[in-house]
Every structure is written in C-alpha cells, then in structure tokens.
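WP5 quarterly update. Target: DUF4332 domain-containing protein. Source organism: Flectobacillus rivi. Length: 170 aa.
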Amino acid sequence: MFELNPLLHENAWWQHLTMFVGAGILGYIIGYRSGESKTFLQEQLSNLQSQLESCKASLVKSTPINTSTISIPTIVNTNTYNTTVEKPDDLKKIEGIGPKIEELLNQNGILTFMQLSQASTYLLKQILQEAGPRFQMHDPSTWPRQAELASAGKWQELKDWQDILNKGKE
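Structure tokens (predicted):
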C-alpha cells in the first residue's frame, strides 16, 4: 500500500510537515489570486455592460436617417438585356450552373452565353443572393469568362479550362 516514509528516515516527518505547509501556502496564494482575477473580470463585465447600455440608449435617441439620400445597389433592370432571343442557349454547359440556376438566370433576363459573358460577377452574386441560401453558396466568378468562350465557339478551350475548375471555381 502507500508508505509515508519509503526510505525509512527517522526525520521524515519534517519533510512531510514542510511539504504540507508549503502546499497550504501555495494553495492560499493561488486561491487569493484567482479570487482577485474573478473580481477583476466581474468589474470588467459590469463596465462593458454599462457601456453597452449607454450605446443602446444613444442609438434610440439618435435622429432617424434620411433614406431618400442613400443609394442602395440593386439588381440591374432585366430590360437591359435584349430578351427577344430566338433560342436561349443551354447555360448548363457552363461549369457551376445547373438547371435551377439556369432557370434563375433566365428569369433575370440572362438567356444566352453572350448575355452571361457581359454580366458582372457582382450582378450574378446579387441574383444568387436574392434567390436564397440554397444558391448563395455558388461562386459565379468564372461564369462570364466561360460564357465568353462558349459564345465565341471555343468549345475545346472551354472544356480544357473546365477540367481544371472545381464546380465552377478556380
């Protein structure tokens, strides 16, 4: 079992007493310091809470913003594109565009590879953003360049590039 004096020294009780007193002093110091830090953290928390409350109060008291002077970017009017297309292109040939995204682009007036190649990445991201969380994960950054190659009839170059792409991303 457990032996308090494994080396059988006659003065071992002094060693035990010294270790016991040292452990007590060390425990007291650690406990005192942790209590000190706990008090410090509580003071910091109450200080931050009072700052938060004053910020909330100042927001409520602030004057309303004149929204007539704010310019909010919106999706470009879909009438910008010539939608009198004889036959829309199969936009699913673009890496990263599936049937649902093709339908979404068609609803926003993008029916051909030429129209897609002229669309900005910002516009495409906005279309996806407004369609909801299911579409927001897609990255349209390569779609205009892919559409440019498709509209120019450079199918082999497009295929070689799409082999490198990962779900339409570089």
